[in-house]
């Protein structure tokens, strides 16, 4: 596949984290171009590009920006979601560690477009190297007049950028949970509406965007909307819900592969391509039993579904929740799906904020049932009980405020649909062929 990386084009370039080197390679050229346009024109370019959020939901970025109130005269905030706590995901970390000014340039352009005067980078606490690298980039940008007041001589454009380190909570990846945490409160997601664009951080209009999304903005302004739409997958004319999957995407490949990595490719590649062409194949000469297409909350692809396009629509056609963060996790044929699902449920039980009873109790029940099955005390009726719980929690049935419960339930529904026979066999014969735990 012939493809020119843009998001990772500076990867491996010596000292590219320094402003001087980044500018030598064309850095901040897109910001200069943006400042010759009006904010509304920049928003329109991003809308025209079809850029969809890379953080998991896939909402059109430019459309989100238009939700800001037009007549608002007070402060507007930009919150950069750099929490990256979805298991198997590390693309934002690579962008921040290896090319921080690319991210910072996208933040500055987006702040200009949305009329934001303050940007908060909400950073996962465990990302110590990211914090140090991004802070150095911010300091360099201030010293060069690329942040602060009168940016690049524009007397009407001021932007302050602050790094805010989170405390390692998965729920802070949800935009309103992030905002609550940023304000110094417990990260309990808010009921919507009002949406953050109307009432967000400090009860002021706020845009929340993912790191990779904002990095894409840099290149859209530099190369144009038509260039961005020339990459990826156009919408299916027979599916009115398909908005297209345009642009490059960073795919993470981990789990049971010979070469865990992060690669940049056009949206729409398949899991099989990623595993065989970039992940070095399944490790130890084994075969893939299942593959997580985009973070554990998306569910599983079976081996027969590995040729599914990993765009914003493809995974939903085979029962997955969506593309998510495009973090592909490979599970080999020697691994028990009972163990995989138990680990998934245990994670979501631990990370539930506890605000909504169905999520708090449902994730606990599912974990306890799977723990009992692993101890050799399970019954076949437990599988139907798991499905009943999973179908009763989340935004989809309308029982919770945020989507964490959906992310917890989807792997359960997915695994029990696609690997039911394995679960039944495990329950029937577990005590005879499996170590007690």
Topology overview:
Blueprint: H1 19-24, H2 29-35, H3 39-49, H4 61-65, E1 77-82, H5 91-98, H6 100-114, E2 118-123, H7 128-143, E3 160-165, H8 175-182, E4 206-210, H9 211-223, H10 225-229, E5 232-233, E6 245-246, E7 248-255, E8 261-266, H11 271-278, E9 288-292, E10 301-302, E11 327-332, H12 337-351, H13 357-374, H14 381-391, H15 404-418, H16 420-433
Parallel strand pairs: 1-2, 1-4, 2-3, 7-11
Antiparallel strand pairs: 5-6, 7-8, 9-10, 9-11
Helix pairs in contact: 2-6, 2-9, 3-6, 5-6, 5-7, 6-9, 12-13, 12-15, 13-14, 13-15, 14-15
Textual characterization of the structure:
The protein has a 5-stranded mixed beta sheet, covered by helices on one side. It has a 4-stranded parallel beta sheet with strand order 3-2-1-4, with helices on both faces. Helix 6 (100-114) crosses helix 9 (211-223). It has 3 domains: 19-230, Rossmann fold (3-Layer(aba) Sandwich), CATH 3.40.50.11540; 245-332, Ubiquitin-like (UB roll) (Roll), CATH 3.10.20.600; 337-433, NADH-ubiquinone oxidoreductase 51kDa subunit, iron-sulphur binding domain (de novo design (two linked rop proteins), Up-down Bundle), CATH 1.20.1440. The chain has 437 residues and is α/β, with parallel strands linked by helices. Helices cover 40% and strands 12% of the residues. It has helices at 19-24, 29-35, 39-49, 61-65, 91-98, 100-114, 128-143, 175-182, 211-223, 225-229, 271-278, 337-351, 357-374, 381-391, 404-418, 420-433, and strands at 77-82, 118-123, 160-165, 206-210, 232-233, 245-246, 248-255, 261-266, 288-292, 301-302, 327-332.
